[in-house]
Amino acid sequence: MSLIKEPDFGTPARPGEATVAVEIDGTEVLVPEGTSVMRAAAEAGIDIPKLCATDSLEPFGSCRLCLVDIDGRKGTPASCTTPVAPGMKVRTQTEKLAKLRRGVMELYISDHPLDCLTCPANGDCELQDMAGVVGLREVRYGFDGENHLTEPTDSSNPYFDFDASKCISCSRCVRACGEVQGTFALTIEGRGFASKVAAGAGGSFMESDCVSCGACVQACPTSTLQEKSVVELGMPTRSVITTCAYCGVGCSFKAELRGDEVVRMVPYKDGGANEGHSCVKGRFAFGYASHPDRKLKPMLRERITDPWREVEWEEAIGYTARRLLEIQAAHGTGAIGGITSSRCTNEEVYAVQKMVRAAFGNNNVDTCARVCHSPTGYGLKQTYGTSAGTQDFKSVDQADVILLIGANPTDAHPVFGSRMKRRLRAGARLIVADPRRIDLVRSPHVEAAHHLQLAPGTNVALVNALAHVVVTEGLVDREFVNDRCEDFETWERFIAQPQHSPEAVADITGVPAEELRAAARLYATAPNAAIYYGLGVTEHSQGSTMVMGMANLAMATGNIGRQGVGVNPLRGQNNVQGSCDMGSFPHELPGYRHVSDDAVRSVFETLWGRTILAEPGLRIPNMFDSALDGSFRALFVHGEDIAQSDPNTRHVTAALSSLDLLVVQDLFLNETSKFAHVFLPGTSFLEKDGTFTNAERRINRVRPVMAPRTGKHEWEIVCELAQAMGYPMKWDDAAQIMDEIALTTPTFAGVSFARLDRVGSVQWPCNDAAPEGTPIMHVDGFVRGKGRFVETVYVPTEERSTRRFPLILTTGRILSQYNVGAQTRRTGNVAWHPEDVLELHPHDAEVRGIRDGDTVVLASRVGETSLRARIDDRMPVGVVYTTFHHPATGANVVTTENSDWATNCPEYKVTAVQVTLKQPVPAAPGPVR
Amino acid sequence: MTTTAPTPAHVRLANEIAAQFRHRDPATAAEEIAAHIRAFWDPRMRARLIEDAEAGHPGVDPLIRAVAALLPPPPPPSPLPRN
């Protein structure tokens, strides 16, 4: 495939039907009202020269190259800023226009380096293209006048350079930073000839608020903002459209290559999830795939104290199969199990759960969603009938009020965060419920109407109080509730009880009653109100209860089943939704169907030729407990580093140490593999062939840009292991696996690689009833029929602050790093976050004698670790925060065994801790940034 | 001085589930908890809970004792899945 260049219509599309007819160069065009002349022309196949215009940005009208002639209009208006009008007659090519355009180009080129042949953007430069388009042959002004050719290059960003000498001050970068990304880190400083792009207050890009999303690089029409990889490797020559392997937004990218070498990842404009935007991880942090730490050969060792020994695949698979069979023979069928990965494709996950159920002969399969969104699965299934967010991402564009609970999308889901900020700048109101003052509470051009700064662990009390206001102040959507829901009266009586009032729970949550009442009224009275939530909801002892509480609130106010509303989990890893869809939970077969359902089991039993157990298997925490009691002896871990990511590290490592056999399949040796006997090398997303399903249920293709560097696809290895255990399991390619998924799973019945290649992506359910997929769920009825109200009693967590551990630790993520950091720590992203730090309020720091940058001890009742302190008043008094991206810190050394009552999802967000000074920062303490 | 054995993980989890259902009348709560445990717990955990409840383990919540009486015994171990 050659290099894909998407068409650029110059200005954004306007919504609505095409009802305005205009004539452009004699061709009649029908476009929606508000469309620019430039875009109308482009839609008619007529390209008007342009430099400052691009269709991801609102028109600006500065370059004066897109001038046109319009009958009845004075002068030569800019086509980008001129909207069409009925009957308008436009000419884009006249002698006068040509002369004007050449004159403009002469001015640009007179102050531009004439180094096209050696410029990194040679062949991909709009300035170069436009010089050709307007027929520029001379520059009458010469090149000796005042110019910017000696402006310095800012190379501070690890991924791109800013060469000011090539800047034409078109403002595309500045506008992209504001309009697309919403960071507003760039500006044009100075006036007239002295005007130039500046980052922040005029320092370097790295010193500014730039989040390195790449939108400015994408927008730059010259080589001013240029990827360092292009400078180093040259322009790419071919593209492969694929899907990012980081967060649950699931952005589509063009992997642009020279040969088999990835030069850059460029966000794909037709990507349903991201529509041409990206973040620092997806755009730039792909270098881990070729990092020298990658393991490409299988390795074995008899004991975990032995050194690793590289072996061939045959020996590794044969040994693993033999040991698994021996352990089952000695300790029973249920003594072994597997963990699937949310970083792997649907096809790989399906293969692993099939291996466990059919070849291992048990249901001991679980997934890393256990430790993040398993309460979403439980809560939404109980209330709505299926485990999935209700909306597509686009839906937020129609929201009038956004209730954001326990999520920090500008860090953890940055491309969706940018979309949300766009909507907020357009006038939507925001309610943030979070112990921390996250960026969305107040950032450029965004300010939350209410910040409900609740105490960690009190979510359910908060959501009950919100619902109490809705019920007791007459804000219930009675028509919706009567038509669409059940068990409302019982719930209404429950939630109206005085102990749920904002005044009654204020002492529990710490949220002033009037603030909470105002937030509840704002949510309930909005034409469209949408809930978005993250792990700050699920990773609690009442995570499932809270999910049901939010589902109740949305139903009571009728905010389900149309654009702009809904209950939307922001999934952590790229394929959390997919790994859950694919039957990774020990109680569910693919499509969220319980293993006790005889009819469902028979579908798989008939196809697979094996009996499937009708009882649930072990969840991950149960596997650890059973390993310690000796009833569980072998574990296959697919693409997860449970020793770093799971809570209470001492407990986890004790469990892993007690196993007779631990098999790890991953890109790198990691904390878990320290306890492994078999290491099977995995494939990066650049080598995978399959699909990921993002947080909006969108199934996207993951296309290989190179053959597996290990020699095998991961699903092939799983098949070979199953075969070596005596179970015939074989597919010719990943497409056949998806065909089997479609055959067995009604919500995927219409999905195939062929369809995805044809339409780009689909959102499940995709079947005969919804052949094009389902962007919005529960439109006419809930999946379970009637939406079910569930009473949500607030039960305080057993984790309490004490005199010994007086602070509450909550953990989370940061923009530049991802999960356990195995990928991002092996990229230039360490420039932003080289270590995990502990954030604490100035008061908590001062009473402990801690200064910014000091090394402190963070201790809980289960363990302690050391890290540097960052003093920040975005933390409330009494609450501290850290991330878990670096194994050197090992934040989960201190998190506990507490978990959600329904799903065992760990309570990462509430741990009682103490913080003490360990090592003062030597001198001149500076802020840790 | 006496020491008490730590509460086993399955007992602790069962007690936490009980806390979520305590607002219901006891019979309904016991039925709902039993249904939850049947749907989500591995049989070996269920067996241990029944065993501890029947043995009068002091850490078992009274509501969970009623639940244990409603839980079916676990199935016999499945044979090895060989053709």
TrEMBL record, chain A:
One Gene Ontology cellular component: membrane
Record Pfam families: Fer2_4, Fer4_7, Molybdop_Fe4S4, Molybdopterin, Molydop_binding, NADH-G_4Fe-4S_3
Domain 4Fe-4S Mo/W bis-MGD-type per the UniProt entry, residue ranges: 237-293
InterPro entries referenced in this protein's UniProt entry, alphabetically: 2Fe-2S_ferredoxin-like_sf, 2Fe-2S_ferredoxin-type, 4Fe4S_Fe-S-bd, 4Fe4S_Fe_S_CS, Asp_de-COase-like_dom_sf, Formate_Dh-H_N, Formate_DH_asu, MoPterin_dinucl-bd_dom
UniProt entry keywords in alphabetical sequence: 2Fe-2S, 4Fe-4S, Iron, Iron-sulfur, Metal-binding, Oxidoreductase, Repeat
Location of the 4Fe-4S His(Cys)3-ligated-type domain: 96-135
Domain 4Fe-4S ferredoxin-type: 158-189, 201-230
GO biological process, one term: respiratory electron transport chain
Taxonomy, superkingdom: Bacteria
Any one GO molecular-function label of the UniProt entry: 4 iron, 4 sulfur cluster binding
Boundaries of every 2Fe-2S ferredoxin-type domain copy: 18-96
NCBIfam families, per the entry: Fdh-alpha
Family named by the database record: In the C-terminal section; belongs to the prokaryotic molybdopterin-containing oxidoreductase family.
PANTHER family, alphabetized: FORMATE DEHYDROGENASE H, RESPIRATORY NITRATE REDUCTASE
Record's protein name: Formate dehydrogenase subunit alpha
Source organism per UniProt: Streptomyces poonensis
From TrEMBL, chain B:
Top-rank taxon: Bacteria
InterPro entries (alphabetical): Formate_DH_dsu
Pfam families per UniProt: FdsD (PF11390)
UniProt organism field: Streptomyces poonensis
Identification of the protein by name: Formate dehydrogenase
